[in-house]
């Protein structure tokens, strides 16, 4: 007699056919009632995942566009800043040149004025010297000659002395 445990391990044809038929019936029931719903849920999830991927790609493309626009704006701002700096440098150089020109002109005017003042003071000094020398010459001539000199002779002596002094100066 076969033991109880052998029947658990043994393959009986009727039980095998009944188990296979049971499996097919369960598959038909699952397919008929649940497969469409499961496939619909899976399709919904696939669509949601595709939509999220598309949104991420769109956001990535938009971020790239914003980045590109930002870089272009930065290049424009840098070019504008360079232009402003260049203009400021040119303006500063022009102002510097103008100020140097004005300073040179003012120095030239001061030099001319100083030269004119020197020439005027020199003439004044020469005239003062002539007057003093003329007076001294008169005194010396009066003592040397010990005679009276007429006004005309006196003037001639002064003029001759001045000419000699003017030539030696």
List the helices and strands and how they pair.
Layout: H1 4-9, H2 13-145, H3 151-168
Helix pairs in contact: 2-3
Describe the overall structure.
The chain is an all-alpha fold. About 95% of the residues lie in helices and about 0% in strands. It is built from 3 helices and no strands.
What order do the helices and strands follow? HHH
Distance between the amino and carboxyl termini: 167 Å
Q: Rg from C-alpha positions?
A: 63 Å
Strand content: under 5%
User: How many beta strands in the DSSP annotation?
Assistant: 0
Q: Which of globular, elongated, flat, extended, rod-shaped describes the shape?
A: rod-shaped
Number of helices: 3
Supply the helix-strand structural class.
mainly alpha
Biggest pleated-sheet summary: none
Mean pLDDT: 85
Low-confidence stretches: none
Question: Approximately how much helix is present in the residues?
Answer: over 70%
Characteristic key phrases:
3 helices; 93% helix
Short précis:
The protein is an all-alpha fold and 169 residues long.
